[in-house]
Amino acid sequence: MSLKKKVWIFGYSKESKMIASSLKDVNFDINIVESNDKNSNDALLDGFKTMVLMDITNDDELEPLGIEPNDYIICVMDDEHLNVFLTLSLRSMCPENEIISISHSIYTTQKLKMAGASKVIDLYQVSANRIHSIFKKPIATKILDSFISSSYDISFGEFTIAKGSCLDGIILENFDFSQYNIILVGVLDWELGDEFIFSTTNISHKLDADDIIVCIGNNNDLEKFEKKLKMSSK
């Protein structure tokens, strides 16, 4: 009888490949479940022999998987709507299991929690936390400066909120920066003083004209975002 802890990974995308590989290295019994032929074949080619190809929207197909109460479940489907649906279905079927879901935005995070996820890994927030950590470490900041000035085309963007722009008057925590492929680092909100506030402090207040936000991302994405702000302020 195997003493390995069993984990069910729903979805075999770029992110779940890394998750599966990491868990394999620490001796987990990994079971991949996919609804896409290509992703299923990729999992088999990568050496994951326990691979189930099925329609995950069909509860009648989910039930025969034989998930035990002590098994871990990780939901990381490419389609976030499908991920929410899957989390909801699995929570109904597996009330005692630890269900971990992956999210790319605060909106999806909220839906996944409501669907019954035990823990949601918000990749957007994880990225912001890592940036915050880097800023707090001077040596790492020098490395980051070297990195963003190299050929990777990644930079910081500083944007002043123009009156009438799409950010003027919005509640900051409700705006999804990830839709523009950029990460919010922090904000200078003049109503709160002249201290830079990192996004990891769970910013929850209204942006006004002349406030300043700092983001990080690919140069092209930052330029597109800047154009969006200028267009919406006209």
In short:
The protein has 234 residues and is an alpha/beta fold. It is built from eight helices and ten strands. The strands form two sheets. A six-stranded parallel sheet has the order 3-2-1-4-5-6, with helices on both faces. A four-stranded antiparallel sheet has the order 7-10-8-9.
Salient structural properties:
alpha/beta, Alpha-Beta Plaits, six-stranded parallel beta sheet, 10 strands, elongated, 234 residues, Rossmann fold
Could you walk me through the main structural features you see in this protein, from its secondary elements to its overall organization?
The chain has 234 residues and is an alpha/beta fold. It has two domains: 6-117, 3-Layer(aba) Sandwich (Rossmann fold); 131-232, Alpha-Beta Plaits (2-Layer Sandwich), CATH 3.30.70. Helices cover 37% and strands 22% of the residues. It contains eight helices and ten strands. α4 runs parallel beside α5. The longest helix is centred in the middle third of the chain and has 14 residues, at 80-93. The termini are far apart.
Lateral strand order in the biggest sheet: 3-2-1-4-5-6
DSSP summary: helix tally: 8
Count of strand segments: 10
Secondary-structure content class: alpha/beta
Assembly status: single chain
Q: What Rg do the Cα atoms give?
A: 21 Å
Low-confidence stretches: none
Q: Which H/E pattern describes the elements?
A: EHEHEHEHEHEHHEEEEH
